[in-house]
């Protein structure tokens, strides 16, 4: 695998997957606009390395923003290769061991797993070649991006946030955005459902400061693992060791007792004091394609910054899909299908989360159906399983309708099966937890869910419905959306984001499933967010400077131009 981020960038460049930009650029909106134009290219475009950022550090963006680059980061030819390794591992681990020889055959497997465990070093790591303490540990030295015009400030967008459970010492590495407040403090965006928030509450009850260390860069496998939906208590660096087939070497921080990968580019050490009042964080242009609005979150205090010589600052941009996070989500689909089969629903054949569904809004599940009501059994199982519990719209298909189909191919199957869809029978409503970023939910993190059972119906379920000429679904739009000429995928993104299944979805007397996808600022107390777009001034400035960037003679079109008509005010909130 890759010893550091620079090694990964060299591999990308050799593979024709990296573009270097030597022209002077600013982390204030300009890098984000250039990244958005590249990320929206077919297949995710190229990774970008900005070498002249007005700071001592270059910035790398869109690193994992294509299927080829996420495969390179994980060291595989195909993402399914990782899933196959996990399938094989689980199959061997759960196989009944009836004889002494069977148990002996498990020893190589145990030895292999031991090689994945993180390994502590007694020396300093490359991530500690340069040490900055006191006033020198200044966050303003770093090329932290301001991504969108109404963002509350500059945000660290690819942080590996290290915390430990004070009760048992088990580590968690999560990816939680960090707004820069001043030279030595940031916000720490821990949602109420996340492990970081659970650790924070544990320290608060104990009346103790919480040590926190943030890393950036290093082996790109770390970045993926920090986003992976691992069960609480499973070390992300064990997964990294499995993916890279060698242990992650760890070094101890200089101002707290946490351990971090030795080969990271940056390490930001510090603490959160739960006795302090939470502070206002946000707004932030988020992966939902809307701004997440201001709220209260803990304050992180920096005690030390270390970095390797020649460090590179990694950053990601999120906004209206598809973007880099769609390919990270694709890896998760392939890698974690085996655990879902084993622990949650063995009848699940495949799972697809279309980019338009921004990970939690829409999922398509394929099952091997053998009894009535099985689609709802699977729906409730998934809605109670880890990060799948945030899902809002779930579509269930039968494997007999999806032979030879995967990924985007499911879209055609769904359209065909909707011709046999009976809303009164096949639409199943529920309620439960939702992602905190779901702006349409009646309450923050809680609202409606809807399962569309598009499986072949058995006799006990009333049998198959005769295929209808039209699909019994309609969407109600605002006039300005009707005039926006959105693509089908853009309509799906907007409809799923703007609707709560219980409040906004009804079955009419004519048997039609109607979704009210209008903007509804009066329906939620916290306010309704604007669609994320770049300002016209920045778009035009980038167009003027285009020949300087070395990206071709004609400017790539700004994706934001398509969505400017959806913006309803001059701030993050409508």
From TrEMBL:
State the Gene Ontology terms under molecular function: 4-hydroxy-3-polyprenylbenzoate decarboxylase activity
- Give the top-rank taxon of the lineage listed in the UniProt record for this protein: Bacteria
Instruction: Give the UniProt record's GO annotations in the biological process aspect.
Output: ubiquinone biosynthetic process
Start and end of every 3-octaprenyl-4-hydroxybenzoate carboxy-lyase-like N-terminal domain?
A: 10-82
Gene3D superfamilies named in the record: Single helix bin, UbiD C-terminal domain-like
Q: What positions does the domain 3-octaprenyl-4-hydroxybenzoate carboxy-lyase-like Rift-related occupy? A: 123-321
Which SUPFAM superfamilies does the record match to this protein?
A: FMN-binding split barrel, UbiD C-terminal domain-like
Q: Which family does it belong to?
A: Belongs to the UbiD family.
- The protein's name is Menaquinone biosynthesis decarboxylase
Q: Which organism is it from?
A: Candidatus Rikenella faecigallinarum
